[in-house]
Design a protein that fits this description.
With 156 residues, this protein is α+β, with helices and mostly antiparallel strands. It has one domain: Aminopeptidase (3-Layer(aba) Sandwich), CATH 3.40.630.30. A 7-stranded mixed beta sheet has the order 1-2-3-4-5-7-6, sandwiched between helices. The longest helix has 15 residues. The radius of gyration is 16 Å and the shape is globular. It starts with 9 loop residues before the first strand and ends with a strand. The structure holds coenzyme A.
Length: 156
């Protein structure tokens, strides 16, 4: 008998404190050096743009961006490991870019580990370019890892 595959219900909603147990659960499985609960609480309290992605009503990813004047700084963007590699990362970053455009943001910045091939590739595909290297920016098993600084101009 052939299985009938139901399309996934994918949606975004603003993150709230009530989501943080689920969010920190994803964070700890997705990153070798995860944010703390306090980092998420502070982001919400600071009024950063914090959005949760849900698949069939369950948290599956999130992104966090600081919007200041005409600049946006992407602070976190994450898809739960179980859902990675299926196009949801691209949907998260596209949603983030549309949100920034809605705030009349001119330019977006982010930092990413050069070893994070999936993220670097995703950002490049969506139009980010590498503009600088921050030496020893991230903690790593062997001392520290550099960060690529990437930028995307939203306005001509
Ligand atoms: C980075 C991340 C968000 C990507 O999400 P994802 O859902 O796996 O990505 P997608 O399936 O949407 O893939 C996006 C693109 O990247 C490519 N890609 C995905 N994984 C890849 C990998 N391991 N190596 C190379 N390319 C990869 C896909 O082919 C796709 O390209 P396409 O649109 O041309 O087909 C996800 O891996 C993640 O959450 N990682 C942990 C948190 C993290 O590192 N966040 C970034 C911090 S800066």
């Amino acid at each position: 008998m052939n299985a009938v595959l139901k399309p996934l219900d994918f949606s975004f909603r603003p993150m709230s404190d009530a989501d943080l147990d689920a969010v920190i659960g994803i964070e700890r499985t997705a990153y070798p050096y995860p944010w703390t609960l306090g980092n998420f609480r502070d982001s919400l309290a600071s009024g950063y743009a914090c959005w949760l992605a849900e698949i069939d009503g369950k948290p599956a990813g999130y992104w966090i961006m600081m919007l200041a004047a005409d600049e946006g700084h992407i602070l976190n963007c994450c898809v739960a490991p179980a859902w990675q590699g299926r196009g949801f990362g691209r949907l998260l970053v596209e949603h983030l870019i549309e949100t920034a455009r809605g705030h009349h943001t001119d330019v977006l910045f982010l930092e990413v580990r050069p070893s994070n091939t999936a993220a670097v590739f995703l950002y490049q595909r969506l139009g980010f370019e590498t503009i600088a290297l921050r030496r020893g920016y991230y903690p790593a098993d062997q001392g520290a890892e550099d960060a690529l600084v990437m930028r995307m101009r939203l306005q001509p």
